[in-house]
């Protein structure tokens, strides 16, 4: 009779302990704050679900959530198709493969706060290269500190520059895994480039594109550092995404109860949409 070896769990226990320390314990702390009120001195008063009710009825929360959803939708609509197109244009063999992969990986190596600082300097109207070019060469009135439209265009372009490379690398990995006989059969049948993409390349990239969409959704929906460093949520509240508003409530107003309830709603919404994305994209996999 064959016996199962359970010693492998010894290698998993450190990971489980690390996850518990970094995720579960902070999460339980947030849950604790979300149902209580505190005025300092470690004194807590039971509040129940009042904070959640306040958040769900708050116009401020709805506005910030709307801006966050709009930002994420624009990012996904741009970066996923753009990343796939760049991956299709990249060479599959030869010395230029390494060059292209290194160039694609470079934006991903830059820390988030540095990205925001770089683009902040880059877009300054007087000394920034982009700001000077837009205002003095093209004659466009570009100032993201005064124009909400300019601020939105800037944060979208910044995110596209920073994270499209991730989609490119994932899509490229899916493309190079396609066996050559598929292309040979398509060539014999006289299939067009669109047919090759539609019936060979896209289905074979389905898994990596699912990962790309999930990663880009979760990251763009929780973006904070780059936008905060670049615009600070301004001008006014035009780029105050939900993540920025959450920090303002928690640290700026020190309203821990509302902030905890907001963060849990934020967390639940992210999980729900991620699950929907995964379910829809993988429903025909079996």
Structure description:
- Helix 1 crosses helix 13 (256-281) and helix 7 (148-176) packs antiparallel against helix 10 (206-221).
- The protein has a single domain (49-281), classed as MetI-like (MetI-like fold), CATH 1.10.3720.
- The chain is mainly α.
- Strands 1-2 form a two-stranded antiparallel ribbon.
- Helix content is 71%, strand content 2%.
Structural class: mainly alpha
Could you name the CATH topology? MetI-like fold
User: What's the alpha carbon Rg, rounded to whole Å?
Assistant: 23 Å
Shape: globular
Sheet with the most strands?
2 strands, antiparallel
Lateral strand order in the biggest sheet:
1-2
CATH hierarchy class name: Mainly Alpha
* Global mean pLDDT: 89
Strand content is under 5%
Q: What are the main properties of this structure?
A:
71% helix, 286 residues, mainly alpha, 2 strands, MetI-like fold
């Amino acid at each position: 009779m064959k016996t199962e070896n359970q010693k492998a769990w010894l290698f998993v226990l450190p990971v489980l302990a690390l996850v518990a320390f970094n995720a579960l314990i902070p999460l339980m702390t947030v849950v604790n704050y979300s149902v209580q009120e505190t005025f300092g001195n470690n004194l807590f008063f039971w509040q129940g679900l009042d904070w959640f009710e306040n958040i769900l009825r708050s116009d401020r929360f709805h506005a910030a959530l709307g801006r966050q959803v709009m930002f994420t939708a624009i990012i996904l609509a741009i970066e996923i198709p753009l990343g796939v197109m760049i991956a299709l244009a990249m060479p599959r063999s030869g010395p230029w493969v390494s060059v292209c992969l290194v160039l694609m990986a470079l934006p991903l190596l830059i820390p988030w706060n540095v990205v925001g600082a770089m683009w902040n300097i880059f877009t300054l109207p007087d000394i920034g290269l982009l700001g000077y070019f837009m205002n003095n060469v093209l004659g466009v009135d570009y100032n993201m500190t005064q124009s909400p439209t300019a601020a939105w265009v800037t944060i979208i372009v910044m995110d596209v520059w920073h994270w499209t490379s991730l989609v490119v690398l994932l899509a490229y990995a899916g493309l190079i895994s396609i066996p050559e006989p598929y292309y040979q059969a398509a060539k014999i049948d006289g299939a067009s480039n669109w047919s090759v993409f539609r019936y060979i390349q896209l289905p074979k990239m389905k898994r990596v594109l699912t990962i790309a969409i999930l990663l880009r959704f979760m990251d763009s929906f929780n973006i904070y550092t780059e936008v905060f460093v670049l615009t600070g949520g301004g001008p006014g509240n035009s780029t105050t995404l939900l993540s920025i508003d959450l920090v303002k409530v928690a640290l700026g107003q020190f309203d821990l109860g509302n902030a905890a309830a907001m963060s849990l709603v934020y967390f639940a919404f992210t999980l729900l949409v991620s699950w929907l994305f995964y379910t829809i994209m993988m429903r025909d996999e079996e």
